[in-house]
Amino acid sequence: MTPPDYEYLRKLLKDQSGLDLSADKQYLIESRLVPLSRKAGLQGIPDLVQKMKNGSTSLVAQVVEAMTTNETFFFRDKIPFDHFRQAIMPEVLKARAARKSIRIWCAAGSTGQEPYSLAMCIKEMESQLAGFRVEIIATDLSQEVLEKSKAGLYSQFEVQRGLPIQLLVKYFKQTGEFWQINPDIRAMVQHRQLNLLHDFSQLGAFDIIFCRNVLIYFDQETKINIFNRLCKIMEPDGFLVLGAAETVVGLTDAFKPYPDKRGLYRPNDARAVRAPAGLVAPRIAAAAAGM
Q1: I want to staple 106 with a disulfide (CB 3.0 to 4.6 A). Which of 110, 138, 148, 165 is the partner?
Q2: CB within 8 A of 41, min separation 6: which ones?
Q3: What's the CA gap between 219 and 216, in Å, rounded?
């Protein structure tokens, strides 16, 4: 792969998906795109790049899909789900006692382990949620992973990663070498293709947003823009859940940390929005592929 080809791919991936690769990630591109180029009947990455430059939008979409990280597992990192059960839901139940409805968004929901983990948590709280309507919206850039999520079919390895055995027995059915999550749990999750770089206000307002382990791949300017737009579609007393390595601190005043709960944030009362000195409002390129 030539330096110009690498720079072309870096720019394309940033424009299309927000993925911000450093100058030393050639190995990552090669490990993921060499197999794709062979599958497409091409000699290698230079041919792949040339075909995209010639206008192959379908190949652009395949490249973005191959490069986006889809690492996930049930109840990943455990702590956010403890927060969900012990801090978030008790407060939301009280605050929505009159409205009797709760809306949850899993941004970058990947192959479904996160939204289905939340669905199982909610199912376990069924007696407390009597009369409530709970919506879980799972979105992702990749249509391929959304289809896997919809199917709810997981290998033995996938269900062994983080899923308590009692929940496996209770909410899954074995199908040959795979395990399929029960239809009532699958029905609790709605799936939509969506690119976080694009406008997502059409999703409506949410009480709880899980946006974990995706913004770490974006540059600072893009993170600020997404955080500020997340705040605009969150209820004033809502909750934002980020990954363990993510924070809003130093990026925006739209959110404030929840006391003593790592990775948990609330909208700031004043809804103030700021960017660090030297940063201007981001100009996000329109993507030809994505959601």
Answers
A1: 138
A2: none
A3: 8
Distance from the Cα of residue 109 to its chain's centroid: 4
Q: How far apart are CA 39 and CA 66, in angstroms?
A: 12
Cβ–Cβ under 8 Å, residues 45 and 1: yes
138 shares its domain with 222: yes
Here the CATH number for the domain that contains residue 62 is 1.10.155
What does each of the 291 residues of the chain score in pLDDT, given as a tens digit?
Answer: 888 888 999 888 888 887 888 888 888 888 889 988 888 888 889 999 998 898 888 888 888 888 876 678 999 999 999 999 999 999 999 999 999 999 999 998 999 999 999 999 999 999 999 999 999 999 998 888 999 999 999 999 999 989 999 999 999 999 999 999 999 999 999 999 999 999 999 999 999 999 998 888 888 899 999 999 999 999 999 999 999 888 998 899 999 999 889 899 999 875 544 444 344 333 333 232 333
CA dist 45 and 56 (Å) reads: 14
Is 281 contained in some domain? no
Residue 48: helix, strand or coil by DSSP? helix
Residues 94, 57 share a domain: no
Question: Are 56 and 128 in a shared domain?
Answer: no
Q: Which structural domain, as residue segments, surrounds residue 7?
A: 3-67
